[in-house]
Amino acid sequence: MSPTRILMADDHAIFRQGLRKLFDEHQEFSIVGEASNGTEAMAAVNDLTPDVLLLDLQLGDMTGLDVLRRIGTGVKFKTIILGADIQRADELNAILLGASGIVRKYAASETLFKSIRAVIAGEIWIKREVIDDLIQMMPGRDASAKNPLVHFGLTAREMEIVQAVVHGLGNKEISEKLGISPFTVKHYMTRIFDKLLVSNRVELALFAVRQGLAKNARQVQLHVVPKAQ
Fold first, then answer.
1. Which of these, 136, 80, 105, lies nearest to 19 by C-alpha position?
2. CA distances to 9, 121, 161, 174, 178 from 182, in Å
């Protein structure tokens, strides 16, 4: 299996050097490039085609949130926001802008490794408190969605996949549960996103809860990060 291609974007050279040394000790990861500011980061994601972008929340010329806004949500790589002091509003905005995870800079190295593996598997690395706040931000259930299969044009199989996403399953787990290939799961996910006008798994899960598509799911069960991390 090819190593996960990682691009680091941080305005502190000593931090990037420390991360590079850390990743060099693990063959499952490969550092393909570094960026010292937001402008370099946006150019590098196009030139280097990383699997994961490790994006500092505070860069020299712009914030990590600014980078997410300019990159957009239709990208193939996953973004993990790194920061020492991340406010709740920044966490919420980062996820809504398409970030797949948030990791504190003081977290253990194994936490960072786990977060990368999680987002590559199609999960969201996020704290329970952030999930709860995101749900609170969503409007109440739409009473007109009495028959979601008709109202949103979802097939029975697509509904099964929506349920799986709400309960925290990644693409590989969904493929194993439903007996279909990961490629087929990815194809279904694209169709679901198009039908429901959402752009990522978090938006899909929150939409499902809001519209009553999530059976027996009182809260969105994405990858919950322990408080200590």
1. 105
2. 30, 10, 12, 8, 10
Higher pLDDT, 201 or 35: 35
Q: What is the pLDDT of residues 195-212, one digit of tens each?
A: 888 877 777 887 887 777
Q: What confidence score (pLDDT) does residue 126 get?
A: 81
Dist. CA 178–CA 161, nearest whole Å: 9
Residues 65 and 143 in one domain: no
169 DSSP 8-state letter: -
- Both 72 and 106 in a single domain? yes
Nearest to 23 by CA among 90, 103, 116: 116
Domain encompassing residue 31: 4-120
Per-residue pLDDT, averaged over 209-216, amounts to 68
pLDDT of residue 82: 96
Q: Is position 65 within any domain?
A: yes
Position 7 scores a pLDDT of 97
Check if the beta carbon of residue 82 is closer than 8 Å to that of residue 105: yes
Please list the residues that pair with 126 across neighbouring strands.
Answer: 224
